[in-house]
Amino acid sequence: MSLKLELKRKALHMTGLSVPIIYLLFGREATLIFVSTFLVIFLALEPFRLVEELRDKVKRKLGIPDGVMAKIEREIDGIAREHEKRGLGAHIYFTLAALIIVYFFPKEVTIGSISLATIGDAMAAIVGKTYGRHRFENGKSVEGSLAYLITGLLILTPLVGLKMAFIGSLVGMIAEFYDIPPDDNFSNQLAIALALYLAGVRA
After folding, report:
1. What digits encode the pLDDT tens for the residues 140-180?
2. Of 45, 81, 117, 173, which is most buried by a Cβ count within 10 Å?
3. Residues 6+ apart with CB under 8 A from 166
4. Which residues 6+ apart lie within 8 Å of 133 measured at CB?
5. Which range of residues forms the domain containing residue 183?
6. Rounded distance, CA 12 to CA 172, Å?
7. Are 197 and 113 in contact (CB under 8 A)?
8. How far apart are CA 107 and CA 28, in angstroms?
């Protein structure tokens, strides 16, 4: 994927920061309602993204011009990973993981893990695409991984202290590097949250 398309994809992913922002402003209960609502909406709309026949029916009922719909579909296909064109989109995995984390984990862990998974992933991709010179077999770069680690330290240290920040950032970097199934947008958040919680962050 080109840097331009990667930037579009990451810009869309940055909307995930709405979860920790709402948690900070309105608390846990409001955040659970917010995330649950969007998860239901995403799941309801997902068949229309995946099944062309359903999209065509909606297009005819709403009277959307073919040219407009084709442009929208090209934009979506352009920023989608190959596996997302056949299965669930990253937004669903991200939202499901965020819901689990908001429900089960304490405030600092929730805000830190979701923020790092969102911003760290973007920084790793952008730095890796732009400055990555030392690459691994999976295409990831040393520069991108270091960008993730540094971003994690900057985000997590004010929340949980330097020691815990290093643990969370390192685990997140490893999870991001290996693209742990079922999707990195799911596993990255949970890996950070579990690492911080097991390392002793309880409140």
Report:
1. 899 999 999 999 999 999 999 999 999 999 999 999 999 88
2. 117
3. 153
4. 141, 142, 143
5. 3-199
6. 20
7. no
8. 8
